[in-house]
């Protein structure tokens, strides 16, 4: 298992001289699964072949579905905030506090989880994360009294939050472990943007399952006829809701929680049946090179101003603020343009769908351009400033308010900003190499969550209102653009994969338990 030549450095990759023996192959063996990567397509050494496996798409798919579910569970309450506040007597602060658990847990555990992930691999951490999610979603379904739902909601949210750090931090590690260099950014984009797709679905699943109580003064029913009022479908005030109507809304909330519990049970079974940690043979040079240990890697990150802190601040300031702001769209719209939770849900859906399309497009472009991710990031962030100014003017009715403009501006902003998310993950992993991907993204996640928590803490200030929320988002994207201008991009992993000679390097056979 050692190096063949004493002249080799410990950062040099090790060459695969053979596939794993037949008795060490993973489950679901298939001879058509292997694809030999022609060395000319990846590195300059004419003698080395790496391998990719078609099962990499299965691993990516399961991971992406888990990410989608994770965010749906995390964002259960915000899209149905109006109904929850009415039937349970909650406040905006209660909704904000439930959402805060994700940031609180990540702020304390994302860095330790990163070290564990780098040490024990993808499979073990994935199963641990899904176990936490199963417990959390199950706790929320417990049949407690209506006055105690606030407790099960918070306890369940805590366990759901424990699953978050790995799923947020895992995409770069998954992509470098399973995918060749010319597919890495795209794989990272798919796994990362899956979370944005999950947020989009949560804005639809919640309001479709849980209907909003209507009032005579609600903006969606200003033109009620006397017949509508006579039929008793709407009420002058939420406090006027009869007990049977209120119970119907409570039942619909629990119906949503049961649906989510069924989702996690199915995924949990699939993950236990088959979710390998790594392929028998790595797909690239840098997939096989040793990484820095946890403490030396952390020291490199803390002292890397250009490679980590500049792009890290861009990620945290822009996406940390955006993610928190987007999870509170219902409250924000209610206080600015008086739009109800149904319309806010659809706007949130299209905002994140725009981000999904943008992230996949940007990831593929970055793979195609190779090492020019700063250029793509500037091309996304600059126009985002102008688009959000348009959105701001619509919300504050400086421009004439109309729903189509609100939809278009929010969706376009989501497209531009979320498209940058996988690029930041990759540009940081490239710049700080050979620091392990887990610890790099762990510190990045900590930074982003701390900024998001600040946003939520401000929301809890009594009588603070909501107008500050949009101005904060605008300030964050302007600051991001200015920081990007001084950032200098370095693609260390990509350069090694494309230019290293690996003829004198060996890779030991991977033990079965490491990838089954």
Please provide a written account of the structure.
The chain has 516 residues and is an all-alpha fold. The protein has one domain: MFS general substrate transporter like domains (Growth Hormone, Chain: A). It has 21 helices and two strands. The protein has helices spanning 55-74, 81-88, 92-120, 122-140, 149-169, 171-178, 181-209, 226-230, 243-273, 285-288, 294-302, 305-327, 329-336, 341-369, 373-395, 403-419, 421-432, 437-459, 467-486, 492-499, 512-515; strands at 34-37, 50-53. The protein is globular, with a radius of gyration of 24 Å.
Q: In oligomeric terms, what are we looking at?
A: single chain
By CATH, the architecture is named: Up-down Bundle
Strand-residue proportion: under 5%
Going by CATH, what is the homologous superfamily? MFS general substrate transporter like domains
- Radius of gyration, whole Å: 24 Å
Question: What keyword list fits this structure?
Answer:
single chain; 516 residues; mainly alpha; Growth Hormone, Chain: A; two-stranded antiparallel ribbon; 2 strands; 68% helix
